[in-house]
Write a structure and sequence with these properties.
By secondary structure, the protein is α/β, with parallel strands linked by helices. It has 2 domains: 137 residues, Aspartate Aminotransferase, domain 1 (Alpha-Beta Complex); 241 residues, Aspartate Aminotransferase, domain 2. Helices cover 39% and strands 14% of the residues. It is built from 12 helices and 12 strands. It is globular. 48% of the residues are buried. Pyridoxal-5'-phosphate binds next to α4. The site of pyridoxal-5'-phosphate (PLP) has 14 residues, from α4.
Length: 390
């Protein structure tokens, strides 16, 4: 029999991290002790009080039935309280907070809710691949907004042609930024809001790394100072700050109109996150766990400096990021990102991701993730410093 796949599937590449995973698996099967600094997935344990709350809640009969589509009011209220405390942003938990099964789910579905054939979705390049691939699947046209080192990886809205801007329905931003580690400049969100108001574009900000900042850096929310008719939404995920990637829990917050469109799409697609997982999320967002999140940031900061030193010894010089657990490392002229990845795997058995996995403007860079245990990071540093020369 011949299986036919939908035409839309041919529009997108394989998920780059799934490829990387397979490559690491193959090497490990061949007996090579590969250190994976490719994927961004915290190695630190989920805080114990969060796990305790999950296991208590898992026994409750009410959570064994379908959860509310929009997330429980308890979880949504906890997100609203957290936003008020952490970002000074007031949210109505009933209309301005929507529970998600991880932010990747919500990010994917937002394109389906807002964009289709003839529409443009503006995506940062380099950037998280899901913005682009889901726009393609939804039949819309993703258009890159280049993020260049010389502009501090900030978008230049003046460079978007008015023809493209008029067709745009959705603009993605993500600060602190995966993969570059860049943080939002002081005028970035004001410029984005003004662009979006001019062209009636929904501003979607992916705040996956809001809590992972170093040396006192505190990331802002794109919702700060919003006006009642703004079409701004933000994706807040518990995955990275609370080391909860396996739980699949996040929220979309902001414009009630945008969340209603996303919620309608979702109610026809999935149900809310598992109720016990939402209870664990309520626990995570209580103020007493802030100190654990800050402790995790200190762990990443120490690793950041270790790896930067080792890379320097190998002839690669990168700026220390102020946020995220990624290093965005420029390569010497003439070395492609693919070749650099191959060399690190071959010479040091260290896996990293090629910059072009995040878009064409990622060429000439590699991304190194700091989410391996300290002992593995230290071993990777030894191998890089002693075996690799660029
Ligand atoms: C990790 C990541 C996500 C996905 O997070 P989940 O909530 O676990 O789905 C979204 N955006 C960016 C930029 C990320 O790095």
């Amino acid at each position: 029999m011949v299986m036919q796949t939908a035409e839309r599937l041919s529009r997108i590449p394989a998920y780059p991290f799934a490829d990387l995973d397979r490559r690491v698996q193959r090497l490990r099967q061949a007996g090579i002790d590969v250190i994976n600094l490719g994927i961004g997935d915290p190695d630190l344990p989920t805080p114990a009080p969060v796990v305790d709350r999950l296991s208590e809640a898992a026994r409750r009969r009410e959570f064994q039935q379908y959860p509310d589509y929009a997330g429980s009011l308890r979880f949504r209220s906890a997100v609203a309280r957290y936003y008020a405390r952490r970002y000074g942003v007031r949210l109505d938990p009933e209309r301005e907070v929507l529970g998600l099964i991880g932010s990747k789910e919500g990010i994917a579905h937002l394109s389906w809710a807002l964009a289709g054939p003839g529409d443009v979705v503006l995506v940062p390049d380099p950037g998280y691949p899901v913005y682009r691939t889901q726009a393609l699947l939804a039949g819309a046209e993703p258009v890159s907004i280049p993020l260049r080192r010389e502009r501090g990886f900030q978008p230049d809205f003046g460079a978007v042609s008015s023809e493209v801007a008029r067709r745009a329905t959705l603009l993605w931003l993500n600060y602190p930024h995966n993969p570059t580690g860049a943080v939002a400049g002081p005028c970035l969100f004001a410029e984005a809001v003004s662009f979006c108001r001019t062209y009636d574009v929904v501003l979607a900000h992916d705040l996956a790394y809001g809590e992972i900042g170093f040396d006192g850096y505190r990331a802002p929310s794109a919702l700060a100072g919003r006006r009642s008719d703004d079409l701004r939404v933000e994706f807040f995920s518990l995955s990275k700050p609370y080391a909860m990637t396996g739980f699949r829990l996040a929220a979309a917050v902001g414009s009630a109109d945008v969340l209603e469109a996303l919620g309608t799409l979702k109610a026809n697609t999935d149900s809310g996150p598992f109720g016990a997982v939402q209870e664990a999320g309520v626990r995570a967002l209580e103020q007493d766990l802030d100190a654990m999140v800050e402790g995790a940031a200190r762990v990443y900061r120490r690793r950041r400096d270790l790896v930067l030193d080792a890379l320097r010894t190998a002839g690669l010089c990168a700026e220390p990021p102020r946020a995220t657990f990624y290093l965005w490392v420029p390569l010497p002229d003439g070395v492609s990102d693919g070749a650099a990845v191959d060399r690190l795997v071959a010479d040091a058995a260290v896996a990293v991701t090629p910059g072009t996995a995040y878009g064409a403007f990622g060429a000439g860079c590699i991304r190194v993730s700091l989410t391996a245990p300290d002992t593995r990071i230290e071993e990777a540093c030894r191998r890089i410093a002693t075996r690799v020369r660029f």
